[in-house]
Design brief:
This protein has 412 residues and is an alpha/beta fold. It has two domains: 172 residues, Acetylglutamate kinase-like (Carbamate kinase), CATH 3.40.1160; 167 residues, VC0802-like (2-Layer Sandwich), CATH 3.30.2130. 34% of the residues lie in helices and 25% in strands. Helix 8 packs antiparallel against helix 9. It starts with a strand and ends in a 13-residue tail after the last helix. Bound molecules: aspartic acid and magnesium ion (MG).
Amino acid sequence: MALIVQKFGGTSVGSIEKIKAVASRVLESHRAGNRMIVVLSAMSGETDRLIGMAHEMQHIPDPRELDALVSTGEQVTVSLFAMAVKAAGGDAVSLLGDQVAIHTDQMHTRARIDSIDAARIQHFLDQGKIVTVAGFQGVTDSGDITTLGRGGSDTTAVALAAALKADACEIFTDVEGVFTTDPGICDKARKIDFISYDEMLELASLGAKVLDIRAVSMAKRFKVPVHVRSTFTHTVGTWVVGEEKIMESMLVSGITYSKKEARITIKKVPDQPGIAAKIFLPISDAGILVDMIIQNAHDGGFTDMTFTVPKDDYARAMEILNKVAKELHAESVTGDQDIAKVSIVGVGMRNYAGIASTMFQIMSKEGINMMMVTTSEIKVSAVIAAKYTELAVRALHDAFALDKDNLPQEED
Ligand code: ASP
Ligand code: MG
């Protein structure tokens, strides 16, 4: 008998009818002989609605009270789901974070899970019940309700799968799996059958939205096989697994893009030890995450620094940097918000040279200028003018033949 954790997102439980449909789908798996734990999100739009109300009440809502409020979204769906299962002739019990209990730290609105008591869930599973657990929430040692940050139900599901040593964690969503790129801009985008945790981490952090990044890191740490699939079809989705489980790695498995960053350059700062710290310390003190950083070679004891920050933080970053630039007697601070970062990701890159240069050739053939380039073991990212994003993604998808089914097939 397999133990399976299934998580359904907000769009899958967005109405009474949808919750009923999820219940009958879960019952199907249960009747096939599996032990089932079901993690649910709030109904789609509900968390936003609750946060909106909180802001009407208080300019900066009290974090403890905000968690108490937003966690109610999931309380609604799990209890309705348990009723739906019972109405369909099955047996289910709902548990909130503190009823499980899912212990977290005290960081309200972005708490981290410290530990999970498996006993109560185990007890109900032994009684043959379907156990449904409210996603996204936990409890502190002092008994306060916490939430795990937006999209946190994925993490709840993976954490439960790890704690109860489940055979698989299935994340049900409104798409069929993880795609080679955004099907919205490239009609040749294809569903990926298998992808490694490391590739998924890169894709998730680079802007692919299917799976929450913290859930992927946790799955990697505890080796939980994750199956991302559609609530509305029975098609097999994408398996996110350890690299050792994938027979043959693709050179490039996915292409992502992000238009959420802006580029900033400080021109002609002294090329001395400590200058980078003077520039980036005030930025990080302001809680601004810097992504790519490039220090240009420069003559005469001076250098240029170019880096990217989230567009949302651009104005604040410019304000800070204008001050820093004055102190350092830099020549100027310039910025560009019309940029996009396009990245190719694949574990196969580790063992092959020339992937970056192939990417550069493709960009040059399309006449696309790259303003910045960074690489890691399994990724090459380039910053380009935002208006070329779609063109770049399609050209790279074609050139690296991501539309071909050259991934290993599942063994029978
Ligand atoms: N309901 C929460 C959110 O909207 C958690 C989740 O859905 O994963 O962010
Ligand atoms: Mg989600």
